[in-house]
Known about the structure:
single chain, mainly beta, metal-binding, iron-sulfur, iron, Rieske_2Fe-2S, Nitrite reductase (NADH) small subunit
Amino acid sequence: MTTKQSGIYFPAGVVEEFLPRIGRVVEINDHQLAVFRASDGTIFAADNHTPHPKGGPLAEGIVSGHYLYDPLYDWKIDLTTGLVQAPDNGQVQMYPVKVENGQVWIEI
Length: 108
C-alpha cells in the first residue's frame, strides 16, 4: 500500500486580500499560483498556467460558481478538480487550501 506524502502548508495572505470572483497571483517556493475566492467564500489555488497548448496565465480569469473561465481561450475549468470542461480537455494542477483564523494556507 502506498500513501501520498502530505506537503507543507504555506501562508498566502488573509481572506480579505482575495476579492470574490477575481484571481490573485501568489508565489510560494518558486510556484506561481492563481488563487481565487468564489462568491460563496470558498478559496481555490491552481497553477497560474492554462493547460491550453499555447499557454498563458489563469489568474486573470473570471470565476462563476466553482468554475473559472480562462482569460485567453474561454475554457471552462472546474476549480474543485482542475478539469477543463467539454468540448475542450485538459487539467490544471490544483492545490489544497485551508483557512484558519482568517489566514489562507496553501499546501505545496
